[in-house]
Amino acid sequence: PPSLFFFDSVLFFFFSRFLGRFLRVFGLFFFFFFFLWMMEESYGKTKSPRRKETVEREEGDAEPNQKRKKIPEIRYAYVMRIGWLPLLENDERLEQVGRHLARTYDGEFSVSTGFDANFIRRLTYYGFLPMSVYSSAGNILTPKMHHMRCVLSFDALHIPKKVKKQCKLYYMTTNQCFREVVDLCNQQHGEHSWLCKELVDSFLEIYNSSREEETGRVPERAKDEISCRMHSIELWSKNGDLVAGEIGYTVGLSYTSLSGFRTEDSSGTIQCVATARFLEGAGFQFWDLGMTLPYKISLGASTWTRGKFLSELSSARGDLSRSFKLDKTNARDIIFPTKSQP
């Protein structure tokens, strides 16, 4: 009948026109969510049993009857433009998780959900360098544990000739204008640098707490929360202008640089050399410079593996007796303390 023919024609038109398009869209959504599910299954769990067995052998569980160490469950979170990263949380598992990542994690960055100051102190205690990334959803804390760490042992320090000639023109202090140094660091490195507002606020909180702790007013906290102390280092011209500086932190007998700036030629090099001499004279064991760069190597720094760095940090972080106080002192007297002339 004509009515049935018309009905069949309408159905054929609908299916030919819209069904194919619908199936294509549905298929795309299906494969997209299937891909996310597979990624979650792959990254949201701990290592495979085979990998677990390998790690336990690396930990020294050679005897079959020996009780094996429990491997912590590592959760992962997805960060846009970076990918899946281990999720670090401010709980009692942080030390265990940090040790496990140090042995088995092929990457360097992790991720956390907040910028709590005490949490950042704990991260530094276990060898993470606090950093952040900028995203459309806001700034995210991304602690970093380098595969290779650039470290200066003070007996290897190289002093360039230009430093010997010009160091008498500058003075150095510590902990005089932390906020100004931070602002100048951000000004030099540009907008959306890793030194974001949330991280700076936490650093300021740690800095203020550090000054109180240095006067003996140490609150009741765990050792991994009080060992980190935040500092600033300032280099001044004879005219009183702030021409170079950096912020960093000490963990026991180690010092780690976070960020620095310079406004005059050679002032940054002079500040670095004077800082090395100051740290050596104050009794610190080594200077952690973070990522390896040519100018650091030219000063005598070398690269340490992740394992060596964490081992040295573990032996250095317990001693909190060293002072980081430096009043206005000529850079020449810091670099050449026993000589009147370089």
What does this molecule look like?
The chain is an alpha+beta fold and 342 residues long. Helix content is 44%, strand content 19%. The protein contains 12 helices and 12 strands. It has helices at 2-43, 49-58, 94-104, 117-125, 161-166, 178-189, 197-214, 223-226, 267-282, 294-298, 306-316, 331-335; strands at 76-79, 83-86, 132-135, 138-141, 148-152, 170-174, 228-237, 242-251, 254-262, 286-290, 302-305, 329-330. The strands form 3 sheets. It has an 8-stranded mixed beta sheet, sandwiched between helices. Strands 1-2 form a two-stranded antiparallel ribbon. Helix 4 (117-125) packs across helix 7 (197-214). The longest helix is centred in the N-terminal third of the chain and has 42 residues, at 2-43. The chain is elongated, with a radius of gyration of 27 Å. The model is unreliable at 40-68 (pLDDT under 50).
Order of helices and strands: HHEEHHEEEHEHHHEEEHEHEHEH
Number of strands: 12
Major sheet attributes: 8 strands, mixed
Q: How far apart are the termini?
A: 111 Å
**Unreliable runs, pLDDT <50, ≥5 residues?**
40-68
* Share in β-strands: 15-25%
* Share of helix, binned: 40-55%
What's the tally of helices?
12
The gross shape turns out to be elongated
Please give the radius of gyration in angstroms.
27 Å
Mean pLDDT: 83
Strand order of the largest sheet: 11-5-10-9-8-7-6-12
From the helix content, strand content and strand pairing, which structural class follows? Answer: alpha+beta
